[in-house]
Amino acid sequence: MSVMDKLKQMIKGHEEKAGQGVDKAGDMVDEKTQGKYSKHVDTAQEKLKQQLGTDQQAKGQDDPPQQ
Q1: Which phi and psi angles does 58 have, rounded to 5°?
Q2: How far apart are CA 33 and CA 13, in angstroms?
Q3: Are 57 and 23 in contact (CB under 8 A)?
Q4: Which domain holds residue 25?
Q5: Which of 8, 17, 59, 61 is the most buried (most CB within 10 A)?
Q6: For residue 25, which of 4, 2, 54 has the smallest C-alpha distance?
Q7: Based on the structure, what is the number of domains in the chain?
Q8: Cα four-point dihedral sign 28, 58, 6, 3
Q9: pLDDT tens-digit profile of 1-37?
Q10: Which whole-number Å values give the CA distances from 31 to 15, 41, 45, 48, 61, in the listed order?
Q11: Contact at 8 Å (CB) between 48 and 4?
Q12: Is residue 54, in this structure, part of any structural domain at all?
């Protein structure tokens, strides 16, 4: 079992909180580097959320209802 599989099992049912944690960590890195690497940090946040499966939850809440 890979580390990523173990992480996915640990956050199961708490995907929203995990996504918030990824965002908070990225914001902290941006603050410490004064935004110098913000594009790289944003890309890393997106990829980590995709791998953890937290991006589907967030997208569903932010998107307006489809008609």
Answers
A1: -65, -40
A2: 32
A3: no
A4: 16-45
A5: 8
A6: 54
A7: 1
A8: negative
A9: 888 888 888 888 888 899 999 999 999 999 999 999 9
A10: 24, 11, 15, 19, 26
A11: no
A12: no
Copy the structure tokens of residue 4: 């990523």
| Non-local CB neighbours of 38 within 8 Å, separated by 6+ positions | 30
This prediction's pTM: 0.69
Which DSSP letter does residue 66 get? Answer: P
Any idea what the Cα angle at residue 51 is, between residues 6 and 36, rounded to 5°? 115
Asked if 59 contacts 14 with a C-beta cutoff of 8 angstroms, the reply is no
Is residue 11 in a domain?
Answer: no
55 in a structural domain: no
Amino acid at 40: H
